[in-house]
Design brief:
The protein has about 325 residues and is an alpha/beta fold. It is built from seven helices and 19 strands. It is about 25% helix and about 25% strand. The structure holds NADP nicotinamide-adenine-dinucleotide phosphate.
């Protein structure tokens, strides 16, 4: 059930820790800080609680699930586990953070929270192709989530953009629905892992357009085709498509920080590796908003654990 806070309840209350984000990093940090008796508040998000795994099908590589587990089930389990130890999950977005000083302030639409420490686990968002017409076709053929939208393209031609594990995972899933699935990749070699490549190459409904970029999306009210440009020759061609699934990586979600923390050149939060301290005392960061290399559910969970332990150590050092 969705829960909102009465702003007045929060007056003069200073929490030990507020966790912003509810993917594997946020929920793992919540489990650990809750078990440590720190009564964490998790701002889980108004619309997208559970993070990216809520839009995933089967997760086969999270240790402990020998037969795999559906992404949303894994996240529900993590949330329940955190709640079991007393974590308070609030389904609101953090809209503004004031991170300086010994007491941090975190605003949502419904409340203002104060905390001695903050764990940022805001994850990342889908990278867009960047075409001017892309936003206007979103929901009219352009999608960033095959499990959410694949069904709408039953027996229609589908394009998947990208060459990593995400693109092939989307393509394999979509091959059940589409009349054809064409993976458009800007090089002639995939970035995806071998196991995913083997599965995609063995799938008769998946074909590849190598050395190609989508340079236009066409159609009256819905997507009807895409224009592909050859990255070697510059030649263009039009390919019929009802669905265009974009799976070209992610961008860290740091917009609410408003420049308060040091970021790397790609916009990821800089932390004191292998720890999770950011450039601001009492503020810790974990998961995909920090990590642009590994980006797995298990590595995000592990860094959420490290953030929780770092918070415990910080509170012991600074507040006793
Ligand atoms: P990724 O590995 O960064 O791959 C992004 C792909 O998009 C690359 O092939 C890249 O091309 C292409 N690309 C990037 N920008 C582009 C642009 N502007 N136009 C066209 N193409 C562009 O991202 P990911 O596939 O989302 O995977 C992220 C992480 O999650 C990886 O560690 C991956 O292993 C993991 N993951 C694992 C699974 C699994 O089943 N185990 C499933 C999904 C994701 P280049 O190759 O030319 O750079």
């Amino acid at each position: 059930m969705q829960k909102r806070r009465d702003e007045t309840l929060e007056e003069n209350r200073v929490h030990d820790v507020v966790i912003v984000g509810s993917g594997p990093a946020g929920y793992t940090a919540a489990i650990y800080t809750a078990r440590a008796g720190l009564n964490p508040v998790v701002l889980a998000g108004a619309m997208a609680a559970g993070g990216a795994l809520m839009n995933t099908t089967e997760v086969e590589n999270f240790p402990g699930f020998a037969q795999g587990i559906m992404g949303p089930d894994l996240m529900d389990n993590m949330r329940e586990q955190a709640e079991r130890f007393g974590a308070e999950i609030i389904f609101e977005d953090a809209t503004q953070l004031d991170l300086e000083g010994p007491v941090k302030t975190i605003h949502t639409d419904g409340a203002v929270y104060q905390a001695k420490t903050v764990i940022l686990a805001t994850g990342s968002e889908h990278r867009k192709i960047g075409l001017p017409e892309e936003p206007s076709y979103s929901g009219k053929g352009v999608s960033y989530c095959a499990t959410c939208d694949g069904f709408f393209f039953k027996d229609r031609p589908i394009i998947v953009v990208g060459g990593g594990d995400s693109a092939l995972q989307e393509a394999i899933f979509l091959s059940r629905f589409g009349s054809s699935v064409t993976v458009v990749h800007r090089r002639d070699e995939l970035r995806a892992s071998k196991v995913m490549q083997d599965r995609a190459f063995a799938n008769e409904n998946i074909r590849f357009e190598w050395n190609s970029k989508v340079t236009a999306i066409n159609g009256e009210s819905q997507v009807e085709s895409v224009t592909l440009t050859d990255t070697q020759t510059g030649d263009t061609r039009e390919v019929p498509a009802s669905g265009v699934f974009v799976a070209i990586g992610h961008l860290p979600r740091t917009e609410i920080l408003g420049g308060q923390l040091d970021l790397d050149e790609n916009g990821y939060i800089l932390v004191d590796q292998p720890g999770t301290k950011t450039s601001m005392p009492g503020v810790f960061a974990s998961g995909d908003v920090v990590d642009h290399v590994y980006r797995q559910a298990i590595t995000a969970a592990a860094s959420g654990c490290r953030a929780a332990l770092d918070v415990e150590a910080y509170l012991l050092e600074n507040m006793s």
